[in-house]
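Appendix C. Worked example: Calponin-homology (CH) domain-containing protein
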Amino acid sequence: AIIDQIRKGLLDMVALKRASNRSRLEAAFDVAERELGVARLLDPEDVDVDRPDEKSVMTYVAQFLHKYPELRSDSGDTVSMVQTEYNNMMTWLYERNSYLQHMRQANTLSTNYADYAAFQNEVLNKVDLYNKLHSLVDSRSVISITAESWREIEMLWKQLEMHMRYWLRLLDSKLPPPFGQVGDWIAQAEDMIESDDIPTVMNEETASIISRKLEDHKAFFADLPHIETLFEQGVASSSYQNKVPEAQLDNMAQRLHAIGPRAAQRRVRLKFLEHKCCLIAFLHLTETKLRIWTVKYGREEKVQQLLEQYTNFVSRNRIFQEFNKAYIDMQQVVEEYKREGNIDQKESIGIDRFMRETAERWKNVSMELRCVQSMLEEVVAYWRRWNP
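Step 2, the predicted output written as structure tokens:
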């Protein structure tokens, strides 16, 4: 695609569509070197693999961008334009974060809501550029941004959002009753929704952490109707006139209105993760037991002991029935999460893949479980036959 954009007709794109991956790569590398003067740093076998070396590929592609800086992305931007936008965004984020950090440490953040609103408008004006740069991460377009470069912007952007939330919470806390109380509750709610430090390892310990978070979530957001009533009473009262900026009150109303749907999305996400952890832990425990039961068998007493362990774990715990029940529950939770969790297509595809892989994994495990029982019973019968 890059070669065709630089000079049309160098490659027969129609014919290449019918060729193999390696044939297409060979033709592209050859034409790029012969016609465009781009050194052949790669061979087809370097790229036609599951995980090609990212740095090598980027080094090769960079040659095109240096030789032909007029190359444009799908949106019409040149390399230099995107680089300038990226640098400007980084500079702006560093400056704004440094400023707010200094003001927080010096305890000199403005107590005038208009100052906050002006700063927030400046942030909002950068959202389109932020989203544009995000769309270029590992893009198939001629121009892209590496995941590593994007992480720097993402980290600084999150820091900025954290500073802005702190500033707004400070402003709201200084409002007269009941708005100060309402503002503080909204800030706590937003912090709970925004920051979920859930371990990435899906096991029983993580399931317990998520379960506690889910209980805390239910307890905290049970106060939402009361907070909404307090806010409505405050607005209906004439005592707040000229004491609360209308813009600040509108901001609080919008945030309070958004809390309900956002809290519901967090609840269903936590519920999904809890069930996912439990299902993974269930499978892991069963597979661990299987490894114990399939060791080299010893004397009759040892084999009989293994058979009793199997019976206690599998039969008395109704393992087959319990997993089927857990899997059906998980399917229902998945449907709820897809319906109410506001997830994107990528996450939805990942969930479907997890469910398929889990079903296949259980199919293999359950088959082994049944084989182990037969094997243990046969070994015990063998020992009894030879040791009457």
